[in-house]
Prior knowledge:
- It is a single chain.
- This protein is mainly beta.
- Helices cover 9% and strands 29% of the residues.
- It contains 13 helices and 105 strands.
- The protein has a 5-stranded antiparallel β-sheet with strand order 14-12-99-98-97, with no helix packed on it. A 5-stranded mixed β-sheet has the order 19-18-16-87-90, with no helix packed on it.
- The longest helix has 28 residues, at 31-58.
- The two termini are 52 Å apart.
Amino acid sequence: MLGxxxxxxxxxxxxxxxxxxxxxxxxxGDTWPCAGLCLWRTLxxxxxxxxVHSQTSEEPKSMYFWETGPWGRCMGSECGPGGSxxxxxxxxxxxxxxxxxTNCLQLARPPNQQNCFRxxxxxxxxxxxxxxPWNQCVPVSLRTGAARPSVCLDGEEGIQTREVSCVLKAGTxxxxxxxxxYFEPKPRLEQACIIPCPRDCVVSEFTPWTSCSKTCxxxxxxxxxxxxxxxxxxxxxxPNLTDFQTCRPGPCEGRDSVFSLRMGGxxxxxMPVTRATRQARRRKGDRKERKGMKDPETRELIKNKRNxxxxxxxxxxxxxxxxxxxxxxxxxxxxxxxxxxxxLCPHWSLPPTxxxxxxxxDCVVSExxxxxxxxxxxxxxxxPKGTRSRSRQVQQFPVAGGGECPTLLETDAxxxxxxxxxxxxxxxxxxxxxxxxxxxALLSQQDRRRGNQTGLCGGGLQVxxxxxxxxxxxxxxxxxxxxxGEDGQPPNNQKPSAPPLLSISYEITASQPVDNGLxxxxxxxxxxxxxxxxxxECEVSxxxxxxxxxxxxxxxxxxxxxxxxxxRVISNYPTGGMGSCPHLLEAIPCEEPSCYSWRMLxxxxxxxxxxxxxxxxxxxxxxxxxxxxxxxxxxxLCSEETVPGPVECEVPCPRDCxxxxxxxxxxxxxxxxxxxxxGRQMRTRSILAYNAGEGGAMCxxxxxxxxxxxxxxxxxxxxxxxxxPWSQCTEDPSxxxxxxxxxxxxxxxxxxxxxxxxxxxxxxxxxxxxVGQVPPKKCPEGPRPEAVRPCLLPCKRDCLVTPFSEWSACxxxxxxxxxxxxxxxxxRRIIIQLPxxxxxxxxxxxxxxxxxxxxxxxxGFRWKTHKWxxxxxxxxxxxxxxxxxxxxxxxxxxxxAVSCRQLDGSLADMGHCLRLASTMPPITQPCQLPxxxxxxxxxxxxxxxxxxxxxxxxxxxxxxxxxxxxxxxCKNSQQFPLSETQYCPCxxxxxxxxxxxxxxxxPEVRECGQGYRYQAMACYDQNNRLVETSRCNSxxxxxxACIIPCPSDCKLSEWxxxxxxxxxxxxxxxxxxxxxxxxxxxxxxxxxxxxxINQVSVxxxxxxxSDCSQYIWVAEPWSVWKxxxxxLKENCGEGVQTRKVRCMLNTVDGPSDPVEDYLxxxxxxxxxxxxxxxxxxxxxxxxxxxxxxxxxxxxxGRMDRIRTAYAIRQPGGGKECPDSLETQxxxxxxxxxxxxxxxxxxxxxxxxxxAVCGVGLKTRxxxxxxxxxxxxxxxxxxxxxxxxxxxxxxxxTVECPVNCQLSDWSSWSDCSHICGLEGRMWRRRTVVRASxxxxxxxxxxxxxxxxxxxxxxxxxxxxxxxxxxxxxxVCGEGLRFRNMSCMxxxxxxxxxxxxxxxxxxxxxxxxxxxxxxxxxxxxxPCTLPCPGDCYLMEWTDWSPCQSVCxxxxxxxxxxxxxxxxxxxxxxxxxxQQCPDQEWEYQNCDxxxxxxxxxxxxxxVSDPDVVWCQRSDGLNVTGGCPPLPPPxxxxxxxxxxxxxxxxxxxxxxxxxxxxxxxxxxSEGLLDxxxxxxxxxxxxxxxxxxxxxxxxxxxxxQPTTAQPGRSGRTWYLQxxxxxxxLKTWVYGVAAGVLVLLIFxxxxxxxxxxxxxxxxxxxxxxxxxxxxxxxxxxxADM
Length: 1675
């Protein structure tokens, strides 16, 4: 472009110069004017160049600047930072066109090349995009500068951004973005977001007013409300939760109590000062104690001087329990909160101000131990890493709420280190040999009465078992032996053998199976399709004709008898050899056998004797010598046979009767002769011309026109050899030694094994047809079948089994009640190869189990508690000032030790129990030491048992202990009862079915039939509490028999017989069919494709071929002439001859039986009637025409064919014979034909009759087709020698109908619920092999369920907190308590409210936890306000979880719930001392979307009263939009705050007159847009012809005011020049066209239609043409 622009500039300069010179040349006569002009132009150019130069020097960058294109692809020879990339850089003008580089400042030229990072594919694993968190959502208006809406309705649209950078994965170092963009586009940096509207704090309604805080005088009433939703998104803060009002119940009559005792809180637990320290203080102080008096502490020390309190000895150093004390104060306070002296508060006694306590101690642990060994002790990078662990011990357990113990066990991934590490064991799958191929019988498609299905063949299925073995076990064993050999010299100083995987030859042995879970590879296929070759039945040809009587052996003819033989051949060889074929040769004894005989081919022409022209004569036969098989041989071999002589004949004279020659002898009517039947043959002749009346030889009588002779005179004594089946192959004793040597050599060979030779025998007998066995001499010896043949003995195969696997691990049964049973371990071995042919049998034992030898401990740990120690009181030094301090009695604390034990009771480390056991039992508890005057009693005993329910009573007892037995007050049975009696419980239980019925469950081995379904039973007591089902004498189920219907396959009939081939000559089709007997149901095997017409049958059509010579036309001799005009003298003239023509089956012996005429070719049917002239005497009589000679190829019309006849009777009287030769031109497809082979299409895949599927055969047929399309005999094409290049058969496969194979049902799963009514157990199965073809489909039910036994759901549950209790005072710091009870429920969510308390013994087996919290809290400090105090209420319950929603859709903000504490005031003067109200919130799940709206008006006394209501019906304060409520002056929601808008009476925001409403997508008013007013500019307006007033002056106020009814348009037709404007002409032309159109339509509508002219011809009426508008604009 730069070059082109430069060329353009130069071109313009050149043209200017040339034009100047030419003009100058043109005006050569006017020199001075030209010189002046040139001077003027020069001055102008100098001035222009100076101007340009001055502008350039002033603004060098104002007109030209550098432009750059994008950087190209990074190129380089190596991957990494060594690449380079380039870009285009050009100089551009400010107007956008490109110019020369010299016009731009060269110093500011950007670089056009830079170094870059060449990215390769392997960089994908090194670099990746690092996504930063999304920043805060920023309103779009802040970025666009648009005004933010004054009122927020549903939220404000915003944008939030994030940082995205390309980093190196290893060190998170920043990289160029182009590297990551090479593999993946850069993630988006911005996304849309919604800024919710400010959400004000939402509070509930006020509660009712409380009662007055005083009974007289001036008091306060309070009402409170709670926080439901905290303020969010800068919403309004929560209002006051408490409302006060004064109350005056009445004047106080007496003195009002203004003082109260207040209890202070307990101080921190601290240890008392030691006794030594106290004694030292006493020595310094003033001793007032009397000499000899000892405090109780001193007496206790003296008492236990010899026994250092064994009860307090610590059993473990893990607990350092120190019992201290804590104190509290009791003060007297005024109603206004000020403290006063105790004397002003009336009291009888003060509560204890001291109590025992435990010093808080945090958990202390040791340092981490060293890392343990890696669990992976071998090398294999493919395996995952191992783990190593380290631990630390607890040195001090937490006491009195101290800090919990941290993690005691830490694990880390690791790899073993070392050079001598062995490779890891590798595991792989091994499989057994495939089982025999099994073909599933299609019983459903066959007759069920056919029980023998052993002959099935075709496609089947084989199965095998897969098991896991250690693949490198031998290698690891070799390495282990090698290592042991290095440590110690192996015996005999022999080196270990070579590793088995590296040795050249080794013996293949079975590997030991291991657990299948160790093999990670996919399991090999355990099923595969297979094929059993279908047996080919033996098929034989029809019997041939009987041969001549011949010797058995022509080479040995002495003393041998003769036989006539007939043979047949095998047309389809069977699979197992010819042994299953029927006999192929039959023999008939005969006399005078001969091996060679003369055969007469034909008789020559009859030659009259004595050279006469007519009369008797002889025919010389043409003969040939042939053997017994009909083959021509040398004539000398027939020298001993009689040579056939001449045959007498007669040539008729002109006046003699003329006869046709004799026909050939017909086929023999019988194959043999007996006493009642004999074979006969016939031949005939007919009269061609009658003799003259006188002198001519007479025609013979009709009986002499046919001859008969006997044939097949041999008796019906047919013999043949019959063979039995071959016996099994047995060892040949003659070659036993050779076989032994061969087997010995075979055992040494690993590549090939040979089996020995044996013998097979069979029975061969001579059989007489229709009689039975006869002596062997009756049958010819020559073709006698063999009775012994050699065979190959089947190889013996021994059973191969794997070694036994290792004994399985001893896993104890740790379920309750089963611990006492000894666990068992087992091992197994697998059969790899089954024995055959007499090989060694498989062992009977494949699975062994035994009880574990060593006792196995159930895994698990438990806490063991020890005896409680002595009760420890507050030290006397602390409580000596309190009343009764001289006596060691009262409340205290006692401790106990806890140890960790295994389940068998053995001691274990404490860390195990901390990690694996339940909650640690408490190690301290409060205790009470009785004082001297207290009554001491034993604990209550258990209630005595009841003999019967609902009958009698039961009791429990306790007794007095020690000196209490002698005190009178303790003997008071009313105050201290020693026995309690109650009626025996009257427990009644009833069972109820619950839940749905389960699936129908069958036994494991059955797929259909009768099973059982189950329904759970629940047992309830008389209080409707769920109890164990054993109470109702039920095992937990109701069983009911059910039926799973068995799948019924499609049932078809057997194949019908094949129909006859559709063509009697050449290729056709044959059909067979099956009929539908029953359709499939219940998931049975589907039917094949049925006939689409009737859907009841299946057809199979295959091509077939028919021998064109199997059916032939057979014509009888012509009848006697029937002359129409009989000349009685001459007996000649015109006449008719007829004959019978029949279609007959052609056999080797000739035509046999008549068949239907359609089977023969109708074109070749001989004529049955012919007309002609019966020759008169002395006329020439010709024979019938011989067949036409064949036409020579090709049929091009140049060749002829002929046929001839010969004179049977020569003419007389000078008459001549007609032509005996006829000629025809060979014309294509008339009498001359070309022949070609034609191949049919492939047939469908044909299987054997017993085959179901698998490998079959596809066939096609070969036709010989004439050029006119007619099929002819195949021999014609064969005789022509045409090339046959097609394969007629090919193998094919029919998809086997593989039934769906399923795995066994899995074991029943654990119950889905450990208790309750809804527990279910499942079992599943998987599809091992999907169905194929027409196989039975997989059932839809892949899993089954049944209910679990109903168990009550027990759990620990807290009761409600009690009131705050303060001991013996009015107010102050106290305690509140709650109990933990055992509750029972049925576990259903809707029954949570029916949880019932039961006895605590039922929860004894549960972990001591409430809702998963092991920290049990049954008491907590509380404050009881004193009269006049202003205090905070207890925390309210958490409010319902609420999500942040817009129009019912949740936004991506966490849901929240809140709770609050309101302030309660009792004295008006103490309001200033009230604490601040408190509220807090927390995130929650599954929040609901609430909506808030104003309600009210209708249905209330004051229609102007409105309030805010939540969508769940709760009245609230806050949450509703900040709008005027209904009933105010402005009713529009949202308010109409847009300029030029107002609220209509219908409550809608409308725009003023002259403005139109622009709405948002939500249908709300967005703005009021000014309606454009068209104004015709005046002559003073120089702007465009038509513009809006808003565009001409946006600040000019519109003339349309609200309330004006019309809009004004100003149109000026004249322009500033006084002429009409163009648009006026356009409007005038449009009006003219419109007027013309209107007048034209009126004319056409009012014009009278013309009458139609009648046509004279009776033509059909034309259909009216209807035009329908289809929306096309061209219409």
